[in-house]
Amino acid sequence: MPQPSSSGSSINFHRYQRIATIYDLLDLPFEYSRYRALRRQLFDGLQGHILDAGVGTGRNFPFYPRNAAVIGIDISPAMLRRANRRRSQSPAASIELRQMDVAHITLPDRAFDAAVTSFLFCVLPGELQIPALQELHRVVRPGGVIRLMEYLRPQGRIRRLITRLWDPWIAWAYGASFDRQTEMHIRNAGLKVSMDRFVVTDLIKLIEIEC
Predict the structure, then answer these.
(1) How many Cα atoms within 13 Å fall on the side-chain side of residue 132?
(2) What keywords tag this UniProt record (predicted)?
């Protein structure tokens, strides 16, 4: 079994091994009230060879482009086992699942037309943000795109207070934070944002990076 490449990766490995069996249940209200519509936007217009980094339990599967060839990677074998059960839900031509650390992707340079992540960078600690971004950029061909769907700390006073109340729970359960500053890390990684827009008020943003 491949080993996590850093202490931050190791913490996430053990966390997601622990919660894999209840992960979908924990997220069920959000999945059907919010996330499913957002997943459609994440894959809109994509085709060809696609990397789904942080594939989790495979909840993106129904939204993969028809006839796409997808490799889904995740640090947790337990999450991947649950994803494997969802293969039949996808219109993709092929889905391959591999255990892999997004900060150390053991796949060839320029192997993909696009890479996507859904709520992955909000669980990556600061020291993994730039390595993960650089790895995604490495495996996507020139002219391809990287798309990230991420939570941010909202600016409105009420929403900001609500997220503060959520902080202890999401940190314990998912290792997540509203304050990962991923857009700053994109710039520091030497990458260029070609599009960013909020898709849920000022709470969730879709970010596209040009390759």
Answers:
(1) 31
(2) Methyltransferase, Transferase
> 148 - beta bridge partners?
117, 207
Task: Show the tokens assigned to 61.
Answer: 């599967």
Burial of residue 4 (number of CB atoms within 10 Å: 0-12, 13-18, 19+): middle
Q: Residue 143 corresponds to which tokens in the numbers above? A: 């002219």
Encode the chain (211 residues) as per-residue pLDDT tens digits.
555 556 768 889 999 999 999 999 998 888 988 899 999 999 999 999 999 999 999 999 999 999 999 999 999 999 999 999 999 999 999 999 999 999 999 999 999 999 999 999 999 999 999 999 999 999 999 999 999 999 999 998 899 999 999 999 999 989 999 999 999 999 999 999 999 999 999 999 999 999 9
**Dihedral over alpha carbons 65, 88, 205, 27 (to 10 degrees):** 170
Given a contact cutoff of 8 angstroms between Cβ atoms, the answer to whether 136 and 53 are in contact is: yes
With the C-alpha atoms ordered 36, 24, 105, 184, is the resulting torsion angle positive or negative? positive
Distance of alpha carbon 107 from alpha carbon 201, whole angstroms:
36
Instruction: Count other Cβ atoms within 10 Å, centred on residue 130.
Output: 17
pTM of the model: 0.94
Distance CA 188, CA 130 (A): 7
